Amino acid sequence: MKKSSGKSSGKWRWVKWLFILPLLLFLAVQLYFFLQIWWWVDHNPSMTSFMREQQAALQEKNPKANIQQAWVPYNRISNNLKRAIIASEDANFSEHEGVDWEALQKAYEKNNKKKKVVAGGSTITQQLAKNLFLSGSRSYLRKGQELIITYMLETLMDKERIFEIYLNVVEFGTGTFGAEAAARHYYGVSAANLSAMQAAKLAVMLPNPRYFDKHRDSNYLARRTGVILRRMGSADLP
After folding, report:
1. Are 206 and 179 in contact (CB under 8 A)?
2. Residue 1 pLDDT exceeds 50
3. How many alpha carbons fall within 13 Å on the CB side of residue 220?
C-alpha cells in the first residue's frame, strides 16, 4: 500500500508541474516584455520584431538588403502627419486606455457584413504592441498577447511617448519604416516638412503600405486622402 501511495504521489507531482511550468514560462515572457517596455520609456528601440522579420524577408532575395529607418524626436515630426495618422487610424487615441472597444465592435460588424476582413479596429497602441514584439500572423493567442502588451505600454508610457515610438517604427512601404524614412522615400523631404496633403497620403497607406508603395496613383488612395484631409483639423494630438 505504501509503495502504491508513493507512485501515486509522484504521478501527481508530475501532473502539477505540467501546469506550473507553462505558467512560469508565461510569467517570464510577460516580465521580459514589461522590462523591455520600461527600458523604452526613455530609450529608443533600435529594431522591432516586425522590422527584423521584414529585413529577413528582403535578405532572402538580396543578402545585402537592409530596411530604411532613421529615428527623429517627436517635435521634429510634422503635426500634419500626427493629425493625419490619428484621423485615419485611431480618432480616439488621446482618450482611450489602449483599446477602443467601440471601434472593435464596429470593425467586427463590418467584417461580418462583408464576409471578409475589411476593417481592423486596432488602436495605435495595439499596432505598436504588435510591431515591437510580435509576428504578422493572426491567431487568438497572438491577439491576447497583443492586448497584454498594449496595457503595459499604456501603464508605463504617456500617450506622447507611445505615439513618438509608433511614428518612428511603423511600416510605410517595402523596407521603409518610420516617418523620416517615409518622408525621404516618397517626397524627398524631412518628416518635419511634410505638407498636409503628403501627410494625409502617407497615413492612408498605413493599412497596406507595401501595396500602396507600388500603386501610388490608385483611385482609392486619392479618394481616401481627401477624406483624411478633411478630418485632420479635428484630430486631437497627445
Report:
1. no
2. no
3. 7
